[in-house]
């Protein structure tokens, strides 16, 4: 088996942030998704939403910027952009349920080849004990982007033919960003959009619990000397 050093959590978030288009309204979920807010391209106007009632969320707060009453969904201190608004939960959830979000970025324990999402409860003692607002985000956002490691701590695949954990939503995931690849959910199954440099097609298949389709030449994810990930074209159809 290949000895692969995958992307870090920060690099996964950075790669996803580079894909969010100008003008998008985006919710960042609990965990790894909250990192995306620190890497948004400065030349794009992207409006961040947090389910606890923030619209216009800025990067993470540090030092004198920290306000214990100003936190994101992961209970981490954040900043506000000029013009930001704070609402109570009913209005925040109306935004989520009403189709006003272009993207929801969520973590996951499992994703199926049909785009089913399981991200809220396992037998692990440290798992999220309830679905919270993830179900509303999963069905309310126009697209759901998932960030997760490709394999669990025991090495088992997290991309599967069928989820074995309780579902958050059926057929809701559009794209998955892992430490090894970026994979699209299509009507005909999972298609590789890009692979980390050094990952072979055979290796990626071996650590994925569902069939994968590959374009003629998938994009490659490379990391520069500063640790910043980017795509290099492979000439495929991604």
Task: Give an account of the 3D structure.
The chain has helices spanning 9-19, 89-97, 134-140, 201-206; strands spanning 25-28, 47-50, 54-60, 78-86, 103-107, 110-112, 117-118, 143-147, 159-160, 173-177, 181-186, 189-196, 212-213, 219-223, 229-232. It is of the alpha/beta class and 238 residues long. The chain has a single domain, classed as 3-Layer(aba) Sandwich (Glutaconate Coenzyme A-transferase). β10 and β11 (181-186) form a beta hairpin. The longest helix has 11 residues, at 9-19.
Q: How widely separated are the two ends?
A: 27 Å
Helical content (DSSP H or I, runs of 4+): 10-25%
β-strand amount:
25-35%
N-to-C order of helices and strands: HEEEEHEEEHEEEEEHEEE
Rg estimate, integer Å: 17 Å
Flag low-confidence runs.
Answer: none
* Number of domain units: 1
CATH architecture type: 3-Layer(aba) Sandwich
Count of helical segments? Answer: 4
Secondary-structure-based class equals alpha/beta
- Overall outline: globular
The biggest beta sheet is recorded as: 12 strands, mixed
Quick take:
With 238 residues, the chain is an alpha/beta fold. It has helices spanning 9-19, 89-97, 134-140, 201-206; strands spanning 25-28, 47-50, 54-60, 78-86, 103-107, 110-112, 117-118, 143-147, 159-160, 173-177, 181-186, 189-196, 212-213, 219-223, 229-232. The strands form 2 sheets. Strands 1, 2, 3, 4, 5, 8, 10, 11, 12, 13, 14 and 15 form a 12-stranded mixed β-sheet that branches. A 3-stranded mixed β-sheet has the order 7-6-9, with no helix packed on it.
């Amino acid at each position: 088996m290949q000895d692969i050093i995958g992307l870090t959590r920060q690099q996964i978030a950075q790669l996803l942030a580079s894909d969010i288009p100008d003008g998008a309204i985006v919710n960042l979920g609990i965990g790894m998704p909250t990192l995306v807010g620190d890497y948004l391209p400065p030349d794009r106007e992207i409006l961040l939403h947090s389910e606890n009632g923030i619209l216009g969320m800025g990067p993470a707060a540090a030092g004198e910027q920290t306000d214990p009453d100003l936190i994101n969904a992961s209970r981490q201190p954040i900043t506000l952009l000029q013009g930001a608004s704070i609402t109570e939960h009913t209005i925040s959830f109306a935004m989520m349920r009403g189709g006003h979000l272009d993207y929801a970025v969520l973590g996951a324990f499992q994703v199926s080849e049909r785009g089913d999402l399981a991200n809220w409860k396992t037998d692990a003692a440290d798992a999220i004990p309830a679905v919270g607002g993830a179900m509303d985000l999963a069905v309310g956002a126009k697209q759901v982007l998932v960030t997760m490691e490709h394999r669990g701590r025991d090495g088992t695949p997290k991309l599967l033919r069928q989820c074995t954990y309780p579902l958050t939503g059926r057929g809701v995931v559009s794209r998955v960003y892992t430490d090894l690849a970026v994979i699209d959910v299509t009507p005909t199954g999972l298609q590789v959009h890009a692979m980390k440099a050094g990952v072979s097609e055979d290796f990626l298949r071996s650590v994925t619990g569902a069939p994968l389709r590959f374009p003629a030449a998938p994009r490659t994810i490379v990391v520069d000397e500063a640790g910043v990930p980017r795509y290099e074209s492979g000439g495929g159809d991604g």
